[in-house]
Every structure is written in C-alpha cells, then in structure tokens.
Amino acid sequence: MLGKPWIKGAARSFAETEPITVPMAYGVDFDAPTEPLPLLPTPGPAPQPLALAPQEVRLYDVIAEIRKNNRVCLQPTRWLEFYRMLEAHADGQALPPEPFTGSAWAATPALAKSMCFRHQVEWAATHNLMNTTWLFLQSLPESDWHYG
Fold first, then answer.
1. Phi-psi category of residue 77: left, alpha or beta, with phi > 0 → left and psi -120 to 50 → alpha
2. Stated pTM of the model
3. What does the pLDDT read at residue 24?
4. Fewer beta carbons under 10 A from the terminal one: N or C of the chain?
C-alpha cells in the first residue's frame, strides 16, 4: 500500500523507475552528436543613411538652450556681437533693446539681463533668424555665458 504523503510519518513506497526511451521519430536520432549550421552569406555594403531635410529651429529650442544650466545671458562682448548680428539683419526695422554693457552691466540685476536677452531672441524669431541665432549660440563655449 502506498503511503499517504500528507500524513506526517506515513511511509512512502514508489515503484522502480526506468529511464525514458525516445523512439526514433521521422528518422532522427536525438542522441546523435550535433553539427553546426553553415554560416549565412555575408551581407552586402551597409545602406546609406537617409538624408533628411534640415529642420527649422523653433523658438522653443532656442529658449531651452539659453536657459540651460541656469544661464542668464551672454557675457558682454559676446552679447554685443549677437546684437550686431541682429542689427545686420534688421533691414531698417525697429531693433530690440540693446544689451547691457559697461557700468550698466554691473548695475543691472540678472533678471533684467535675462529678460532683455530673451526679448532679443524673440525678436530674432519674429524676423526669421532662428537658424542664424541657433548656429551662433551653439558655437559659443560655456565660458561665454553669464550664469545666475
């Protein structure tokens, strides 16, 4: 009689077991040594990457760039260079406020500098100068930025 495994201390007795034998199915010997599959042919040259049309830079992207790492505005010499670039593209239209330089730079708080610089960037956006502005700002090292 077989024991009742759920009762503690019950004796267990099981029938003797034999290893399973698998009959040869479809002429395949499953115990035979394996052989590697042949290598696939090597692919041709890699396809050329797609050439996408350049995307227009958005104001959002430029604002994110000028605010990155708590930036306030450009250092005075670079800021003046940026303003001269805007003047060159103004074509006689009203310009945004001039950057703070000299003693005005020292006396002006960071928030006012930031607002002035942002106003200049928004002016560039309304005059279709986003790509030019983006390229100028991307070319600057971190040392050319004033931080808050």
1. alpha
2. 0.63
3. 60
4. N
